[in-house]
Amino acid sequence: MLFTVYAVDKPDSLQIRLDNRQAHLEWAAGFMDKIKIGGPMLADDGEAMAGSMFVMEYDSVEALRDLFKNDPYNKAGLFESVTIRPFKALLGAAAQA
Hints:
Layout: E1 2-9, H1 14-29, E2 35-42, E3 49-57, H2 61-69, H3 72-75, E4 79-87, H4 93-96
Antiparallel strand pairs: 1-3, 1-4, 2-3
């Protein structure tokens, strides 16, 4: 099943993101086969990082929530909120796959 993971950074937390970026990328490397698309969300200026977004294929929302509890960004207290929801690909190239 597909899921979206939508994580919003706390205000003024760029340094937390930068300090934990390498650990976050190493963590994500452990399940790259599950990530359909992912990366940082940007602020309105189109440059400053403001959160993280993933579309992932995973067995259950509970298992995915457990996985994201171990995200180094989450452990460092970067996120103001993390929302995980089931997702149905209906439009675009990914829906055709």
